Amino acid sequence: MNILNIDNLTVEVAGKTILKDFNLEIKSGEIHAIMGPNGTGKSTLTKVIMGDPNYKIIKGTISYNGKAINDIPVNERAKAGIFLGMQMPLAIEGVTNADFLRSALRAKEGDKFKLLPFIREVDKYTEKLHMDSDMILRGINDGFSGGERKKNEILQMNILKPDVVLLDEIDSGLDVDSLKLVGESVMDYYNERKPAILLVTHYQRLLDYIKPDFIHIMKDGKIVLSGDSELALKIEKQGYDKLVGMDNE
Amino acid sequence: MNKITVYNDEIKIENSGNIEISVGEASKFFNVQSVKVKVLEDTDIVIDVSKVDIKLDFYINVLKGVKANIYEYKHDGEYKFQYKYYLEEDSYLNIEKINDGRDIKEMTVINLNGERAKVDSNLKTISKNQEKYNFLVYHNAKDTISNIVNNGVNILDGVLEFNVSGFVSNGITGCDINQKGRIINMTENNCIIKPNLFIDEEDVMANHSALIGTFSSDEIFYLMSRGISKKASENLLTKGFLLKGITYYKETLEEIINKYWR
Fold it and tell me: What pLDDT digit, counting tens, does each position of A118-167 carry?
């Protein structure tokens, strides 16, 4: 059982407070969805858990399995089993997906890394995600559409097999078919490994495929309302303004 | 395949027959040697330079309609080299150069003398001390093309400078001039790129770019978020940055990068 705990977390970026006394606990086998209008701190939450140095923790603790990780470098968090599927994955020209993924898996597995199983896994998941088989030899996300970039994040998740999966608007930029494919791939991964999942989304449509146990609405940098999947339907019908008293930007 | 190996003050030549080559003393007083090459047919020339304690001048003439590739690797030494290239009508010259020396000063003069002559030049260096590269590219004939790409990663005590000047006189129409310079500076030392275009003709396409900076923190974060250490992330980004455009000495360059970002 892995537990990610966020306790009383206040976070600043460029002198502006984004998260305020934020609290949340996520355990293996749980799926939490964070919803809310733009600018309430949803993406900040995922980035600060991953350790993005652009975000400054003013107070509070992020702990993983009882150990504070506030000061642990990004790569050590990843090696401990935390994965962030990004909202806007970067394109990095010249660094191939193959070199990138091989380096990542080698960092995680050390001497246990084996090339042949790695190649088989990549082939398996590129096919499953309907990605071009030659994408592995291209630069990271170089020339990829928005949808392809999101699929690449899910591919990386499947290869690296994290225990805590943070998905920041993984549904944005996806067409209907790709959304179904990505949603089902996340659920397949969930059913296979039972990770803790925290997903950030604006729309109910992703939740047609990924079934959260908990839905939280954020306002002014903290969770103001939590519920089950019914809450997402209420948001879709009523909007955030009626539910938690705020303007939907 | 032809090969010129320069080691200490010795110059060895392997000539496959499609070049004419002569080695001589350019200046006894200044201890300058010269290598003169005439490229007669399409061919590749490999130049391997190490531990040289002489100054060297290269004169390379690519004849009409001939295509030549020059692959050069300079390592383990302090170098003051001068290169002069002469390209005749419809000739093509591709230069791929990787440097891993200590102090390096180079002057490269490219003369595009014949119509439709084209040069692609890719220089990659990891600068640890003083390195200065001057390029003068003369478009002396119509419809000539030059693509000059200089990429360097500046580390340790490195101070790196790229100066590139392109020249087009009035009446030399239809030329295409491209200069791209980028330095990843991983020190507090000053690095310089001076891209100059001296053009006295309206019918010309010209582009230049110059960028000095570090790797983007977002790129580093993205790679590290997959478990890759900062050092290994820099290794990957350096490879991505420097290996582009390098073919013959690609593995050598990878080994050099691994040496500094182990």
Answer: 999 999 999 999 999 888 999 999 989 888 999 999 999 999 999 999 99
**Residue A9 domain flag:** yes
A106 in a domain, yes or no?
A: no
- Residue spans per domain, chain B: 2-260
Whether B226 contacts chain A with CB within 8 A: yes
Q: What distance in Å separates the CA atoms of residue B196 and residue B216, rounded to the nearest whole number?
A: 27
What ipTM score was computed for the predicted complex, to two decimals? 0.94
State pLDDT tens for residues A176-196. 999 999 999 999 999 999 999
Q: Range of A17's domain?
A: 3-87+117-135+145-244
B155, B184 contact by CB (below 8 A): no
Partners of residue A84 on adjacent β-strands:
A166
Q: Where are the alpha helices (DSSP H) in chain A?
A: 42-50, 74-80, 97-109, 115-128, 146-160, 176-193, 229-244
- Residues in chain B with CB shorter than 8 Å from the CB of A48 are none
Q: What angle do CA B76, B82, B83 make, to 5 degrees?
A: 110
Contact B236 A95 (CB under 8 A): yes
pTM for this entry: 0.87
Helix (H) or strand (E) holding B217: helix B217-224
- Split into its structural domains, chain A has a count of 1
Per the domain annotation, does A108 fall within a domain? no
DSSP letters spanning A108-134: HHGGG--HHHHHHHHHHHHHHTT--GG
Q: Strands B10-14 and B2-7, how do they pair?
A: antiparallel
Q: Which residue of A has its CA nearest to B245?
A: A94
**How far is C-alpha B205 from the chain's CA centre?**
22
Nearest neighbour of A104 by CB, restricted to B228, B237, B240: B228
Q: Please name which of A20, A19, A25 lies closest in space to residue A44, comparing C-alpha atoms.
A: A19
Which of A175, A151, A207, A192 has its CA nearest to residue A31? A207
- What CATH number should be reported for the domain holding residue A44? 3.40.50.300
Whether residue B237 and residue A53 make contact (CB cut-off 8 A), yes or no, is: no
The position carrying tokens 């994290």 is A162
Residue A102 belongs to some domain of the structure: no
pLDDT greater than 50 at residue A249 = no
> Nearest C-alpha of chain B: how many angstroms from A178?
23
Is beta strand B104-112 parallel, antiparallel or unpaired with respect to B130-139?
parallel
Q: What is the pLDDT of residues B132-178, one digit of tens each?
A: 999 999 999 999 999 999 999 999 999 999 999 999 999 999 999 99
